[in-house]
Design goal:
The complex is a heterodimer of chains A (121) and B (107).
Chain A (H helix, E strand, L loop, with lengths): L2 E5 L3 E2 L5 E8 L9 E7 L6 E7 L4 E3 L7 E6 L4 E6 L8 E8 L14 E5 L2
Parallel strand pairs in A: 2-10
Antiparallel strand pairs in A: 1-3, 3-8, 4-5, 4-9, 5-6, 7-8, 9-10
Chain B lengths: L3 E4 L2 E4 L5 E7 L7 E6 L6 E5 L3 E2 L7 E6 L2 E6 L8 E9 L2 E4 L3 E5 L1
Parallel strand pairs in B: 2-11
Antiparallel strand pairs in B: 1-3, 3-8, 4-5, 4-9, 5-6, 7-8, 9-10, 9-11
Classes of the chains: A mainly beta (121), B mainly beta (107).
Chain lengths: 121, 107
């Protein structure tokens, strides 16, 4: 059974780059035609899809964040990562990583537990 | 971009009630619509995929229907453990958007 776990700094300064990693256990990140994605949720607000990466490396981003987002895969570590540049207070949120274990970018299951990232000086 | 309009934004109902949440897409998305349950402090949980398919292990009191632009999520008999926020999510052309969420409370 696949399990995902986010890791990274909980505090990032404005204008800097937010970097998070998601470690996948219970299976290989590259063994199946799966997608791996990031979703965020500002405190008290709804869910926002940030982007997803196919196991082969193809990426798909939310158009509203595309200019600041990079998602990558490290198959040697069974991890995928998120980088969000030029952050502001509006980027403060719980960040979730999630898998799409079907052969099309469809739904998210399983999810990591989420990690709160606060943007503040 | 496809916009998802979910309603109501909040809902109060009694145990045993039938509860309905709707989600409307700004354009035809066929049946590319999923529903999640999120409890406080927890990650969302997939309940329904492709508009009407119940995820394995999800109680049968949950159901979904619809196609095109109009979708419905129903709890046939509300249980205390169903208190949560529910989200719809569409996937079309390799882009994903969520509805604004519906907070469900017990009356």
């Amino acid at each position: 059974q696949l399990q995902l776990q986010e890791s990274g700094p909980g505090l990032v300064k404005p204008s800097e780059t937010l970097s998070l990693t998601c470690t996948v256990s219970g299976g290989s990140i590259s063994s199946s035609s799966y997608y791996w994605g990031w979703i965020r949720q500002p405190p008290g607000k709804g869910l926002e899809w940030i982007g997803s990466i196919y196991y082969s490396g193809s990426t798909y981003y939310n158009p509203s964040l595309k200019s600041r987002v990079t998602i990558s895969v490290d198959t040697s570590k069974n991890q995928f990562s998120l980088k969000l540049s030029s952050v502001t207070a509006a980027d403060t949120a719980v960040y979730y990583c999630a898998g799409t274990t079907v052969t099309t970018l469809a739904w998210f299951d399983p999810w990591g537990q989420g990690t709160l990232v606060t943007v503040s000086s | 971009d496809i916009q998802m309009t979910q309603s109501p934004s909040s809902l109060s109902a009694s145990v045993g009630d039938r509860v309905t949440i709707t989600c409307q897409a700004s354009q035809d998305i066929s049946n590319y619509l999923n529903w999640y349950q999120q409890k406080p402090g927890k990650a969302p949980k997939l309940l329904i995929y492709d508009a009407s398919n119940l995820e394995t292990g999800v109680p049968s009191r949950f159901s979904g229907s619809g196609s095109g632009t109009d979708f419905t999520f129903t709890i046939s008999s509300l249980q205390p453990e169903d208190i949560a926020t529910y989200y719809c999510q569409q996937y079309d052309n390799l882009l994903i958007t969520f509805g604004q969420g519906t907070r469900l409370e017990i009356k």
